Amino acid sequence: GQSLEQPSEVTAVEGAIVQINCTYQTSGFYGLSWYQQHDGGAPTFLSYNALDGLEETGRFSSFLSRSDSYGYLLLQELQMKDSASYFCAVRTGFQKLVFGTGTRLLVSP
Amino acid sequence: GAVVSQHPSWVICKSGTSVKIECRSLDFQATTMFWYRQFPKQSLMLMATSNEGSKATYEQGVEKDKFLINHASLTLSTLTVTSAHPEDSSFYICSATQLSSGTTDNEQFFGPGTRLTVL
Fold it and tell me: To the nearest 5 percent, what fractions of chain A are helix, strand and coil?
């Protein structure tokens, strides 16, 4: 079967740094993506890692270790608008994504 | 960026009726469209993969006769929930990937979702 595990909830204050972990076990692996979803909204693409290492995009960075079947999303300089759900997703085949359990991030003042 | 729309954004229907949801790629041609279902506070579950002009590929456990998918053009896919029941109430989200070879094929562009409530 396929499984992608994430912490269910993370809380932090404005300006802080938070890391959301994702461990996966899938039948195929082409890369790990991260998506943000606000309540009632569509998922929006944040980052993609096909190879091991760190990818940085502004305040967000994403890391992948294929040997450990593990990745994380790092959010820096947290803002209130970052309060949302974050999903990791493994690309298991041609354009096909399997989503993680999701992490609800709550940012407080 | 690429824009995907869905219509309607929400729908309420009586049990036993059928509901059609449209997914359109507005400014690009989509090789493939995907349909997901998301229950409250849960993850997105892939229901089916749809390619223009061919039959959709359904995920295990998804009834193809209940969730009819038509992908008539490179910019439009429809999901029809037939004989809907209260347990079909959910948030249905489509996504699309671009046809252009100049783009990375790792990104899916998501529609805003359709909230279905079956009474």
Answer: 5, 60, 35
